[in-house]
Amino acid sequence: MKIVVIGGTGLIGSKVVRELEARGHEAVAASPSSGVDVLTGEGLAEVLEGASAVVDVTNSPSFEPDAVLEFFRTSTRNLIAAERAAGVGHHVALSIVGTRRLPENGYFRAKAVQEDMIQESGIPYSIVHATQFFEFLPGIVQAAADGDVVRVPPVLFQPIAAQDVARTVAEVAVEEPLNGGIEVAGPEQFRFDEIIRDFLAANGDPREVVADPHARYFGAVPAERSLIPEVGAPLAQTRYEDWRKA
Ligand SMILES: NC(=O)c1ccc[n+]([C@@H]2O[C@H](COP(=O)([O-])OP(=O)(O)OC[C@H]3O[C@@H](n4cnc5c(N)ncnc54)[C@H](OP(=O)(O)O)[C@@H]3O)[C@@H](O)[C@H]2O)c1
Q: For ligand 1, what atom is nearest to the CA of residue 58?
């Protein structure tokens, strides 16, 4: 089965390519460095020729709310048009747990628009909603830092290893389209401030972590369960401590 991984050079994309190859599929990593650009449409028709499925694991270079909305709107529009022209039978996208729960979070809002466009495209699809990657912890710290203080809301948080996300995405891509979404999360729940405090200490970072119920997460104040999956969602295997020590 030929599967094109758009964003196949990224954190998740490169792992999805390896997971698909390990299952005996022809996985094609597509990104600007291989001449495929979802914003301009360059190279899309050629790379999609003969593809059974497309996995979209691209990301916006900027997390500024308008930029990220523009990125996912344009990229999804171009991808859907190219998939329709090429007769691709399965569109797989990676989104985030809770995109509908925090509309004040500009990044989540853009991902929700991406999800709507996929659902309305008429192309059979599957959307994987993952929780925050362990690998994204430094990005969260950067966004929450204010001088020597890192403010995060003490809500529930259930991060996952990028490798486990990639495995789930690859498994979904070779199955029949769900025409819906699934959630996937790490095996343990933490308090958001607790794991950030541990992560900084483990990296010798002296910054103080403050549990602030009013602190925003990319523009939104999450409620207790905003960032965790529904009860019963499949849980990945890799535990935080094992990932950190690996
Ligand atoms: N971070 C989290 O905790 C989290 C949680 C759940 C879901 N997600 C979702 O996971 C997805 C993948 O994230 P990631 O961390 O793996 O991203 P990443 O490492 O930043 O990789 C992004 C990929 O997109 C490609 N790309 C960027 N602009 C492109 C363009 N115009 N045309 C074609 N490809 C382009 C990049 O290519 P180059 O290498 O050439 O730049 C790269 O391969 C995102 O959609 C994100 O919303 C993230």
A: 24
Say which CATH topology domain 2-245 has: Rossmann fold (3.40.50)
- Gap between the Cα atoms of 83 and 42, Å rounded: 13
Judge whether 41 and 48 are in contact, CB under 8 Å.
no
The pLDDT of residue 212: 97
137 Cα–ligand 1 center, Å: 16
Q: What is the strand order of the sheet 149-152 is part of?
A: 145-146, 149-152, 208-211
Residue 162: predicted pLDDT: 98
Mean pLDDT value across residues 133-149: 97
- Sketch the domain layout of the chain as residue ranges: 2-245
Q: Any idea what DSSP says for residue 135?
A: G
Nearest to 127 by CA among 187, 168, 87, 74: 168
Report d(CA 33, CA 14) in Å as an integer. 13
Residue whose Cα lies nearest atom 4 of ligand 1: it is 132
